Amino acid sequence: MKKLLISALISFGTLLSTVGVSFADELLVPHFTYRVGPFAANGTAVANGYTDYFLMLNERDGGIGGVLTNPEECETGYKAQVGVECYESYRGKNPLIVYPNSTGITLQVLQKAPEDQVPILTMGYGLSAAAKGETFPWAFNYPASYWSQMTSVLSYIDSETGLKGKKIAFLFLDVGYGREPIPVLDQLGPKMGFEHMLVPVAVKEMQNQSSHWLTIRKEKPDWVIMWGWGAMNSTAIKEAAKTRYPLDRFIGNWWSGAHVDTEALGMKAKGYKSATFTGTGTDYPAIQDMINLVVKPGKSKTSMDEVGKVLYNRAAVGAVVVAEAIHEAQKATGKKNVTGADVRKGLEMIKLDDARIAELGLTGLFAPIIGSCADHEGKGAVTIQQWDGKDWGPISKPIPPMVDVVGPMLTKAAAEYIADKPGWKSQKCN
Amino acid sequence: METLIEILYLIFVSPFAEMVAYPDLFFQGIWDGFVSGTLYGLIALGFVLIFKASGVFNFSQPILVVLAALSLVSFYKMGIPAWISVILVLVMFYVLAFLIERLILRKLVNQDGNILFMSTIGLTFLIIGSAQWIFGGRPSAMITDELGLPNGSLEWPMFGGGVYFEMIDISAAVIASIMIVILALFFSKTKIGRGLRAVADDHQAALSVGISLNQIWVIVWFVAGVVALVTGIFWGARSDVSFALQIIGFKALPVLIIGGFTSVPGAIIGGLIIGLGEKVFEIYWGPLLGSGVEGWFAYIIALIFLLFRPQGLFGDKIIERV
After folding, report:
1. CA count, 13 A, side-chain hemisphere, B216
2. Which residues pair with A27 in a beta bridge?
3. A306: nearest CA in chain B?
4. Kind and range of the H or E element at A99?
5. Residue A15 located in a structural domain
6. Among all residues of chain A, which has the CA nearest to that of B22?
7. CB contact under 8 A, B238 and A235
8. Residue range of the domain that includes A69
9. Contact across the interface for A199 and B279, Cβ inside 8 Å
10. Which residue among A36, A39, A214 sits closest to B128, beta carbon to beta carbon?
């Protein structure tokens, strides 16, 4: 009898806590982090930027629409399998977003999210084809897909030296993320008259690239484009300098051009370029609020010298997009406690134009992002930045993607993705 | 038929023609392979030391490399002079060796090898968590200038090209070679070295002839820490000092299979075979296989050794009587 009573009490308690979690007066915006493991240096900055923006909203505005936000972290160590476990752990807790911080994890949960009615935001990463909103109603990759980014990088090279007759080496981390833009090179090579060679770098070789760079030295490419992450970036820049490859002909994607990649190298990395879609620095009212309300009072894990750097600011922009989608969802539904399905609609209704960006105190930090049902990437422009030995600075105007090239490729890829998934639910957009 | 001839040409003729046509590139590959090989050997050495003393594959050796490099840089950033920081790291490793012996190994004397192996996995996670908590995870540059290690590079002009020798790589090769010679002499000529071999063979037998197991283990873990420090300094200089360094640590596994788990010279020979082999293969045959062959080349060589000489080049052949 005693045992029965205890069991009943435990069951009742569990039930109460479940109900409590499901209907708690908070907006759960979890993100999958990697503060440990070989990519921890990058992952920590990303995690801090995202968390701090939501904490700032809590401190300054009392959350969003009067409801506090909860930017809960789930540690993945940048491992896809652990990321899936993180995803599963949020089932039944009404998460408003899936923010995986990894293309590998994104690919694993892409099919699960529609069933669980929770949108995935992969800001600047993920599956390029997810840009097609009609096919992927639950996935968003604002402000541009990897494919769009690659076309912008190629446009930049074209404007610098021309592409016709040139040889491009594509140095990439040999995982899903690194391989993602290869179809663009395959498609555009014959069309624009350039030759490309692939130089894959396995994760366990990312700090040991001398033979990759000897291959590059042998092949003498006119440009090297890098899709790297973590320690691969700084090692590649060092090896490029060692091989006497001109650093101003070496251009990384937007995940290969952060302070964490170049600060330790200093002047040795001078001249190296990368793409970006967010600005640096702290001269934005909202970033100042993050400093004054969260970082300085010690309410976050961020150190002062980290604020304003590439990855921190970019992660904050990711949080801005999520917060704005929640704001739109609250407006549209009239509810304070919105659901994942509401936020999905909010992401499609998002209108981060110049006026709204100014209202948020972020003018100049990123280009406008206008959501729609059909376009889940926003076709954002890419800027090229260069390391001057001490800091990153922009050296180009925003370069729009080649929509005419990427558009049909995305449509084809989206159709191919669902071809073997008979139950896949698409949507129709007007 | 034409395609077959073309393939045979690409495999057996073209690479050698390129070696002759661009000797600078070939020599650069050899030099880079030599340096990488020496450093692989150094990593493997850390594993060999522990294996010799306890017959266990020390899973925590790569994280010891990270811990050494990270603590050295962190001490320096606190304002402690570079060489004093080195001494502090050595003191830290002695204390760590003592704690490992007291808290882990002493309680596992005469236990199955798998239990000891599992304990090193546990130790790895303990060090990862503690190091992250104490030092943080942001990458830093190795303090090579502050340690007085030479900077810059030498160039050897050759047929319109050149072979570049980074001074830090030359230092790495020289220091690693000296260290290996000292350790080889230490283990073959000294009383402690002989005691260590006895401990590796049988804990109980070693104890029965008066060898202090505890003392041997502290010494060996401390020396493995010293090796980790040297490895961390030079690998940190080639890339940067971050937790990613632990990945490179596991490159020692194929090196150990080739050289043998119990041989100090084996570690360096195995390292050189892998280092030289993977560089030359990647440059000349890699493009035929889509590049990126370095990631698996070492394991293929190791697999071949496992098939034909499982004890490695210099490892002890274990004969078990039934």
Report:
1. 28
2. A69
3. B138
4. none
5. no
6. A218
7. yes
8. 25-145+281-379+409-419
9. no
10. A36
- Contacts of A404 by beta carbon, 8 Å cutoff, 6+ apart: none
* Model confidence pLDDT, tens digit, residues A253-277: 999 999 999 998 899 999 999 999 9
Q: Tell me which amino acid residue A224 is.
A: V
Q: What is the pLDDT along chain B (322 residues), one digit of tens a residue?
A: 678 888 888 889 989 998 998 899 999 999 999 999 998 998 898 898 888 877 788 899 999 999 999 999 999 999 999 999 999 999 999 999 999 989 988 888 777 878 888 999 999 999 988 988 888 777 888 999 999 999 888 888 877 778 999 999 999 989 988 888 888 888 788 888 888 777 777 777 888 888 888 888 898 899 999 999 999 999 998 888 888 888 888 888 899 999 888 888 888 899 999 999 999 998 899 888 877 788 788 999 999 988 988 888 877 666 666 6
Query: The CATH number of the domain where A235 resides is what?
Result: 3.40.50.2300
Gap between the Cα atoms of A362 and A284, Å rounded:
5
CA B198 to chain CA centroid, nearest Å: 24
Quick check: helix, strand or coil at residue B174? helix
Interface contact B165, partner A, CB < 8 A = no
- Give dist(CA A204, CA A280) in Å, integer: 31
Give the distance from residue A250's alpha carbon to the nearest chain B alpha carbon, in angstroms: 18
Residue A26 predicted with pLDDT over 90: yes
CA distance B193 to A349: 72
- Looking at residue B319, its amino acid is I
Total domain count for chain A?
A: 2
- Domain co-membership, A140 together with A39: yes
Based on the fold, state whether residues A244 and A258 are members of the same structural domain: yes
How big is the A-B interface in CB pairs under 8 Å? 133
The answer to whether the Cβ–Cβ distance between A215 and B28 falls below 8 Å is no
For chain B, which residues make up each domain, given as ranges?
A: 30-150+162-249
A10 is a domain residue: no
State pLDDT tens for residues A63-113: 999 999 999 999 999 999 999 999 999 999 999 999 999 989 999 999 999
Q: What is the DSSP string of B218-229?
A: HHHHHHHHHHHH
- Distance, C-alpha B215 to centroid of its chain: 24
Nearest to B244 among A206, A238, A243 (CB): A206
Residues from A contacting B (CB-CB < 8 Å) are: 35-41, 43-44, 174, 197-208, 210-212, 214-215, 217-218, 230-231, 234-235, 238, 242-244, 260, 264-266
d(CA B257, CA B311): 7
Q: What is the DSSP string of A328-394?
A: HHHHHH--SS--HHHHHHHHHH-EE-HHHHHHTT-TTTB--EE--SSBSSTT--BEEEEE-SS-EEE
What is the Cα Rg of chain B in Å? 21
Task: Residue A275: name the closest of A193, A156, A134, A185 by CA.
Answer: A156
Q: How far apart are CA A27 and CA A67, in angstroms?
A: 7
Distances in whole angstroms, Cα of residue B118 to Cα of each of B54, B111, B113: 13, 12, 9
Instruction: Please tell me the distance from the alpha carbon of residue B124 to that of residue B59, in angstroms, as a whole number.
Output: 7
Report the alpha-carbon distance of residue A73 to residue A48 in Å, rounded: 10
**The one-letter amino acid at A61:** D
> In this structure, is residue A309 part of a structural domain?
yes
A347 and A388 together in one domain: no
pTM of the model: 0.85
